[in-house]
Amino acid sequence: MIVGGGHAAAQLCVSLRQAQWPGRITLVCDEPSVPYHRPPLSKSQLNPGADSSLQLIRPTDFYAKQQVGLRLAQTVRSIDRERRTVDVGQTKLSYDTLVLATGSLNRRPPITGIELPGVFSLRTAADAEALRAQVQNAQHVAVIGAGFIGLEVASALRKIGCNVTVLEMANRVLSRVTSPAVSTYFESLHREHGVALRTGVSISMIQEKEGQLTLLEGDHSLVCRADLIVLGAGARPNDDLARLANLEVNNGILVDEANRTCDPAIYAMGDCCNQFRPLYQTRLRLESVQNATDQAKIIAAAICGLPLPAETLPWFWSDQYDVKLQIAGVSAGYDQCVLRGVAEPGSSFSAWYLNQGRLIAVDAINDPRAYVVASKLILRSARPSLQILADQDRDLKELLLSGTKTYED
Predict the structure, then answer these.
(1) Contact present, 70 and 27 (Cβ < 8 Å)
(2) Domain membership of residue 28 as a residue range
């Protein structure tokens, strides 16, 4: 039994059947649709003039052909680990193996008035459709939060002509995931596209007056007015069901290398789980399509008694205007950042993150070559030459040919 309907759930159905697993598969999801692609929700799905059809990960008839039982628009309320059942309201469903793919939930800042009409979150297709229906009548939209979702929403709304104000509590955008130089680049990018961007702003109250929303900060001084507000203040793991079942939880459901929880009959995957990653020698909870897909393949192998796949490198991407940001690895804990190229709008460049000389991550901005090369080097635990990294006239192939060589600069 799979609880959840995102990328991980869809991939597990595929991977189990590819591994010739003969048993029954039941997918329980609180949304009315079969699993669909989530990234377009903060991009093309917000355009009233674009096709609003969901981009399904697998066509609906795939599940029938693969004998996957669907229980859509049903919410699992609790897990009885002793009896191996889940409660979906009027019915209790039995399982032999349970896989939690419950994803993440939007963080809701402690803002008075956050429940007012006109304040939107963006996590599901229903959220995107509700926002899309209102955007065409909005002249000014305020976005609270300047992480990936907040900036992607700002980009999508500017493309359709909305006036956009982005408000970020930290002193720079993308502060949790990039270096100051990359943050500065994206701040300039959005300002050049007409976004009013303010950092170091903490919204404390939202008020409605005469059909317009007023955003106030700490001392109730006016920050801005808007017709709509979109919350992009980050996400938390949707691990409430696991907590109720007394599974081990700490910033997500704790799982081992096979994505198995402390209960051998229960696995967890995707945004909701926290797993030790040997490459970084720490536990990580990752929010990405790639991570969800890879962990589904791990669980399928574990259930089928097959060797587990080798560890993969985390990667992420973000599309904003005509810029593609590709991230390989995880930069948390870096002690040095080397820029290759000039970090200014219209240019291609990359930021290389190192820890004690070892490459741990790269941000590649319109620079797919840097992304590909860095991905290989990170998996090798390479210690690349800083001179080669910083010199655009030097071919990155030099780094690949060096293997794991340690350079003395």
Answers:
(1) yes
(2) 2-39+57-105+236-304
